Amino acid sequence: MNIHALLVSRFSEALDKLGAENAPVPVARSSRPEFGEYQFNGAMALAKQLRQKPRDIAEKIVELVNLDAVASKLEVAGPGFINVHLSDAWLANQCEQALNDPRMGVAKDAEQTIVVDYSSPNLAKEMHVGHLRTTIIGDAVVKVLEFLGHKVIRQNHMGDWGTQFGMLLAHLSDKLENQMAETALSDLEDFYREAKVRFDEEEGFADRAREYVVRLQSGDEQCLKLWDQFIDISIKHSEEVYDKLNVSLTREDIMGESAYNDDLANVVADLKEKGIVVEDQGAQVAFLSELADKEGKPAVYIVQKSGGGYLYSTTDLAAIRYRCGKLHADRTLILTDARQALHFKQTEIVARRAGFISDEQTYEHCPFGMMLGSDGKPFKTRTGGTVKLVELLDEAVERAGKLISERDTDLSEAELKEVADKVGIGAVKYADLSKNRTTDYVFNWDTMLSFEGNTAPYLQYAYTRVQSIFRKSGISPKDLTGAMRFTEKQEHALAVLLLQFEEVVGVVSREATPHVLCTYLYDVASAFMSFYEACPILKDGIEEDVRDSRLELAALVAKTLEQGLSLLGIETLEKM
Ligand SMILES: NC(=[NH2+])NCCC[C@H](N)C(=O)O
């Protein structure tokens, strides 16, 4: 059920009857419960057009609009707003349908093919906190898109190619003389640092590194074998993080930079032929007047360096051509931190000029801000190093375990472990997901693990509350078949919220903003707590049909929390 869409269609019919077929149909959520739940705001503009008084037009629309079964009251307010008060009977009926439908009445969208490029770590190094954000947010976006019926193609655009591999392979080759690759690469951060020191300080090493680059690019077999080993172990490191995070990425989703290697020369040749790039000081560049500076000088976008080398940009152009041309992506979403925004803007301009993207296809860079430490500076270890994700996630589980065992709980050892796992990982993921992704956010253990406020533990706890009500009642949700019936304002408010789920996932799918879903789930959980306080369920003296109706409403709360959290990649628990 999409209340907003329903109201738009009903008001649109009313406007047709008024003879205003093409008038816009602005319907918004009301700002306060006294104004009902939704508001039609189109009467004022229409009045101007028809040269009538706005309130008169609004009254006419109220006469014409067919909302008898949906609204208990329509009132004209202020200069000509129409406030819609939804009817309890209609809400109850819709909630029953949602409860009995596996998709909770959420319709699927017209199917699109959507490429989502996320996680995409650089394999020459350990994944860092920036990759945590793209992985978590990207995975939630993917799940929402799939839930809405789209064909989603995950693309893990790993940085597995480029000149830095010369240095790494030369170093690896030396190390393999007396140890196994697994041991040599057990700590990628250390390995990278060692190689870099040698590159900067050891005589002859830099030359060897450059030789390795040439050998790698010319397909030298021994060199490719080394590279394969390096990549394989490095991917395993990422998989360990994916596993702990419980994200849906697999090896099949990897389409790293190296996959486009053979296509780069073709891309540049194509751009040259189309006159999109020209030679400038030996390099192949495009001039982008769309992004000119204050003096009118166009931005310079390089696709091939003067020595013939290719760049990050060349690979991204090849990737666009593949995704739009071969995979037929209607939309391409790319999640990286905001510092890459200009790169993607420029890349899109060049790709459109070249016809790699058609007018119907979109290319959407979804930027996010930085993760900051409590000092407001980029998140680092106490000694200033990069934080290893595996260690961060282990710490989350450990902290959650401690917090849970300090609470009054009757969980067994095994249950405790499971709860710690789900709460700890859930907390880290949710802390990230719940912030508007475009802003920086401060990483804070205490807030993210708190059982109060907009956190994963709070939502997981709300879910277990419902489960415990059902356990106490001895009734299973399946056995509830009676009609729902609302009399209290808390029931009404909760029902309206529950029926807004579809509107919310729609926003997330269009804007790649999981925080909208987080805020929504938090509102649902809070509305449930208020409802539970005001409307007793299992107390003596509560009539059976009232009890059952309230149990059904609680069951829909649990269903919504479970579905919503699962779209965010966060697990629920039966008790905690
Ligand atoms: N098509 C892309 N450029 N995707 C994003 C790649 C992100 C890059 N590997 C990084 O770590 O910053």
UniProtKB/TrEMBL annotation:
One of its GO terms (biological process) is arginyl-tRNA aminoacylation. Coiled coil: none annotated. The keyword ATP-binding applies. Keywords: Aminoacyl-tRNA synthetase, ATP-binding, Cytoplasm, Ligase, Nucleotide-binding, Protein biosynthesis. SMART domains: Arg_tRNA_synt_N, DALR_1. It catalyses: tRNA(Arg) + L-arginine + ATP = L-arginyl-tRNA(Arg) + AMP + diphosphate. Residues 5-86 form the Arginyl tRNA synthetase N-terminal domain. The keyword ATP-binding applies. CDD domains: Anticodon_Ia_Arg, ArgRS_core. InterPro entries: aa-tRNA-synth_I_CS, Arg-tRNA-ligase, Arg-tRNA-synth_N, Arg-tRNA-synth_N_sf, ArgRS_core, DALR_anticod-bd, Rossmann-like_a/b/a_fold, tRNAsynth_Ia_anticodon-bd. Residues 459-576 form the DALR anticodon binding domain. GO terms for molecular function: arginine-tRNA ligase activity; ATP binding. One of its GO terms (cellular component) is cytoplasm. Its main location: cytoplasm. A motif ('HIGH' region) lies at residues 121-131. It is found in: Cytoplasm. Its EC number is 6.1.1.19. Monomer. Belongs to the class-I aminoacyl-tRNA synthetase family. This is Arginine--tRNA ligase. It comes from Alteromonas confluentis.
